[in-house]
Each structure stands twice: as C-alpha cells, then as structure tokens.
Amino acid sequence: MILQVDNLVKSFDGFIAVAGVSFQVEKGELCSMIGPNGAGKTTLFNMITGHLPLGKGRVVFNGMDISKLPGHKICRLGLGRSFQRINIFSSLTVFENIQAAVLTHRGKSLSFFTSVQPLFQEETEEILVSVGLQDHRDAVSGSLAYGFQKQLELGIALASNPIMLLLDEPTAGMSRQETKATIELIGKIVREKGLTLLFTEHDMSVVFSISERIMVLHQGQLIASGPPDEVRTNQDVQKIYIGESRCS
Ligand SMILES: Nc1ncnc2c1ncn2[C@@H]1O[C@H](COP(=O)(O)OP(=O)(O)O)[C@@H](O)[C@H]1O
Ligand SMILES: [Mg+2]
What we know:
This protein is an alpha/beta fold. The protein folds into two domains: 1-78 and 163-248, Rossmann fold (3-Layer(aba) Sandwich), CATH 3.40.50.300; 89-161, no CATH class. 35% of the residues lie in helices and 24% in strands. The chain has helices at residues 41-48, 71-76, 94-105, 121-130, 146-158, 176-193, 204-210, 228-232, 235-241; strands at residues 3-12, 15-25, 30-34, 56-61, 64-65, 79-82, 164-168, 196-200, 213-218, 221-226. Strand 1 and strand 2 (15-25) form a beta hairpin. Adenosine-5'-diphosphate (ADP) binds at residues 12, 17, 35, 37-43. Residues 12, 17, 35, 37-43 line the site of adenosine-5'-diphosphate.
C-alpha cells in the first residue's frame, strides 16, 4: 500500500465538505475519484497533499505519517500533484518552467539573469519529451494553447520526481478529444515510470476506460469504490448521476 487515508474531516464555517473519508491506494494502481461538483474532491486532495490542515484523521504515504507535514515536504517525499487551476510561470518558456521545477526540487533557485541555464538540461528535455512538448520548448508558456498548458503542468508535477501523482482535473477546460489524449498520455507515463495515480475527471467515458478502480465521493462521503464494472452498476452511484449533466 502506498497511500492510506484515515477518517478525514473538513468543515468550512459549519458546512461539512469532507465527512469522514477513508481509503487506501496500492502501489502502481491507476485510480480515479469521481463525484458531482461540490462533492469534496478538491478539498480532499488539498488535505492529502498538505495544502489544507487536517481537522481530524491521518494520512500515511509510503509508510510515513504525513498528516502534519506542509505541502512542499510532502512533495519532496514523492507525492506529486497538479492543481485544478493552471499553475505555471506564464512569462517563462516551456523549457524554463520545467527546468525551474526541476531546480526547485533539487533545492536550487533559478537565476533569472542568465538566459541559458545548462543545469539539469537532460532531465528537463526528458520530461519535455514525455509530456509531448518538445516542439514547444521555446514557446512562452502564457501564449500556449490551453491543452498544452495543462501538459506543461503535468511536466511540472513530474519534475518533482514523484512516485505517486494526485491530479485534480488534469483536463479541466479541454475538449473531449484533448481530454482523451491527455488522460491516455498520463496513463502511459504512469505505467512507463511505474508510478501510482489518483485523479479526478469529469469525462466519464475516459474515467471508465482508464481507471483500474473508481472511488465515488458524494456530499463528502465515499459511497463506492471498486473496478469500473462494479461502480457502473452500483445503484447509489447511478442515483446521484441521474439528472447530472456534468459530473467531475
Ligand atoms: N475555502 C472554502 N471555504 C468555504 N467553502 C469551501 C471552501 N472550499 C470548498 N468549499 C466548499 O466545499 C464543498 C466541496 O468543494 P470541493 O472540494 O471544491 O468539491 P469538488 O472538487 O468535488 O467539486 C463545496 O460545497 C465548496 O463550496
Ligand atoms: Mg474540484
């Protein structure tokens, strides 16, 4: 087991967003978390990755209790994440963004006075290729098409050399086709590098085609967890998705 989440609870001004969630993820698993908007997925991911303090409960990652650690320390232990919103330096090139992330992970800071930085060139190039951005290496990140910006975000997450990735809506705002291609790319990277993946996604066909296991969150509670076929036929799950035009 690589991740163990025990009884996480979060409330905002009396509103319970995460209502006692427990689950485990095995090493090498590709799993997703779905649930209608407002179900608590982002809050839960923020708690696991140290971006929101835990009210109650415990998170154990790779054998270590990370419940009280800040986000950057958790990232250093190998739990990489991306954010639902784009989180890149828009004035830097694609190459520089990934390089900056690699440097940050190595505890060095990028000098903005030097135009060409030879540091970690090879590693940066390798990440560029794995996320399919080699043809855009010198593009200013802010000018990239949205889909490419999301690919860059993935590259930034990979720069921390994670053993597990937590991706919150890695395809938010993408077309159906871009979504499919991006999730397939993520699946390929995760398998090739032997990583573990937990992601949220609103396109159900993509979720059901790639996930080995799907967890369903509803009003802050996990109501189902299992392989796609089992979740698809689960009556509670069917009930919450009836009438939902969009779920994530
Ligand atoms: N910082 C916050 N302050 C108040 N309410 C919040 C905050 N963050 C999230 N919420 C509320 O918690 C619930 C869960 O939100 P969220 O975790 O973003 O759900 P999801 O990612 O599944 O759409 C929502 O009702 C949301 O409005
Ligand atoms: Mg969310």
